[in-house]
Amino acid sequence: MLLALASVQGKNPWTGASPSYWDYASIWDGTWYKIIAYWGYPGQLPLSTSGHVSQNAWAFLPGYPFLVRGVTEVTSVPWEYTSVAISFVFGLGATLVFYKLMRLTLPAGTTLFAVLLFCISPVSPLFQVAYAESMYTFLLMLGLYFVVTRRYVLLFPIILVMSLTRPSGLAFALFLAIHIAHRWWVRERDPFPTGQRVLAVAATVFSGVMGLAWSIIAWIGTGYFSAYTETELAWRASYIGYSHLVPFTSWIQGGNWWLGAPAGAVVVVLLVVAFALFMLTKGVRRISLDLRFWVIAYALYLLAVFFPQSSVFRLLMPLFPLLGVIALPKSRIYRVLVVLLFLAAQWGWLLLCWGVDGADWTPP
């Protein structure tokens, strides 16, 4: 699909017309990652003509670009090849860990179909482009696997690297807090030894600290207290103008921008209610309780800080445990239709978000 799209891609800010696969797979955020890998982060924040912080590299965390840079230095393989290869390898690792996660609560056949859906999901092209999602998803799945199997001591290096790959520390800390509260609540029938309590609480605190670490690093690097937050807000300024981050208001703002007020706000409320009802269904209860806790924690995190636009499809990727719910029906007709739907949605995502059409405002 990417090759087909590249063959008809016109000249754009990153490539000429009909670029090679490797060049085409390194556009959009891939260019930001390359800038970070070779030139680092700006010590002085760029400002717009209105005096506000404009888009810059501080919005992107260093884990993935620094790893790619390290591999290119060792192997002398150019960035375009190395970045895609590393994404592919992490995508493969994520697929294998996803199988192990699903297999903890689902039958083998259902698990394998869930794995298929993961591999062909609408945003699965991200596993073969120069984005940090593959690396982050692999680390997240490992972290979830260690929590479900209660190997808390292994969480610390995962949280450290994961939190410097994609913004995730606060969401994972919330997930761990819910996990700990539940384990404490059922401790009489499912013992929660002191050693595990200490490690789980320590991991939660560590994840919370790491969730704030990049903001502190950006502050130190620029001398500007809200450097990271203001940088992130610059991406939504083209929609709603410059504003401060007020938790749990971005979706209302986005809904009203897309659909008009008050219709947008009403739709957002209905989506939240529909999601809550969905999480109570029998199918969702078939997957691991801890994975449900993660889905809830991450959904709350997105609701608190994210402004809904075309990147929302990519940012829904961490809700991957819900693929286990979609995989439950065993009807062959159903499964074939779901596969066809996913492939069509994958093509639709590429056309909408990855393909560049003039002054494109639908980034992936």
Structure description:
- There is one protein chain.
- The protein is 63% helix and 0% strand.
- The protein has 364 residues and is an all-alpha fold.
- The chain has one domain (2-354).
- It comes from Subtercola vilae.
- The chain crosses the membrane at residues 81-99, 111-132, 138-162, 169-186, 198-221, 258-279, 291-307, 336-357.
- It is found in: Endoplasmic reticulum membrane.
Question: Total number of helical segments?
Answer: 18
The string of secondary-structure elements, in order, is: HHHHHHHHHHHHHHHHHH
Helix share, percent: 55-70%
Proportion in β-strands: under 5%
Number of strands: 0
Spatial separation of the terminal alpha carbons: 15 Å
Number of domains: 1
Largest beta-sheet characterization: none
Mean pLDDT: 96
Q: Which regions contain 5 or more consecutive residues with pLDDT less than 50?
A: none
Shape category: globular
Secondary structure elements and their pairing?
Layout: H1 2-7, H2 21-24, H3 29-39, H4 63-75, H5 79-103, H6 108-119, H7 133-148, H8 155-163, H9 169-185, H10 194-222, H11 227-234, H12 237-240, H13 250-259, H14 263-279, H15 289-305, H16 312-315, H17 323-326, H18 332-354
Characteristics:
364 residues, GPI-anchor biosynthesis, 18 helices, membrane, endoplasmic reticulum, globular, mainly alpha
